[in-house]
Amino acid sequence: MQVGPLTFVKVDPGTTYVGDDRGGWIHASQRPRHEVRVPEFFVLKTPLSAADVTQLSNQDGPATQAPHEGVDAELLQQTCAALRAHVPDHLEVRPPSLAEWKRAREAGALNPLPGVLEILADAPFSNHRGAPMDGRPRERSAHGPLMDQLACIEVHPHKTTATATSSVPMDRRLPGTVLRLVLSPVREGPPRTVPQQADRSANLRVEVMCTLLIGVVPSFLIPVLRGFGGYALEGWANLLFGGLVAGFVTGAIWRPRRPTVTWEDGAVYEEDEERKVSQ
Fold it and tell me: What is the DSSP string of 2-21?
């Protein structure tokens, strides 16, 4: 689809999975892994170039095809406003959501650039609880220290297949930030979202079981197997403490994989806010 000076590539509707199901505590910010059903949309294969930004803003500037680095709220609003007049009413112009970005990359419609931060339409997030499951962006908060920030995709400087999520302030232009746009259907009605609450009882059961099997039981078993069975009785307090510490430390890097939240597991806003998922 040609919109002004920009060519958008169609991405067929499909399902993608966002997040991580690894159980270690270091992966908590990327849980829970969840299914997202993304409708058909259009995406720029590469981020806006310096020439694109100059043409859309009707201002003097470089006319090179190198990616334009430095994105703030003003540039984002100006660029989207310049394209809206050429876009059908059922489509909105904006940066991609995280799910749309992943779906476009999986479909081969998107080329990540090494070492850049791609602006997303999502609000910053500390985990995926409450994330929409239809590909729409996460809503921004009107209050708090992150109200002027957006989420972004950080691409590895050498391996474009390796990415991470973080956030960037939108009140100033930072080097390395680039802007890619999508034409995405306007979502109507309440979203289906990842349940807000984790199943704490299930998580506690897993933690207790792993601590016993990985830490406490081996702590007592090792001296017995080495012929120091008497110490297992006399020094039980030390062995118990050591086992608990070992179990606690291993939880940082490994725990059993957590379940993936399917579409059917999602909660519809104001309909099922109490549904929980083990994270």
Answer: EETTEEEEEE--EEEEES--
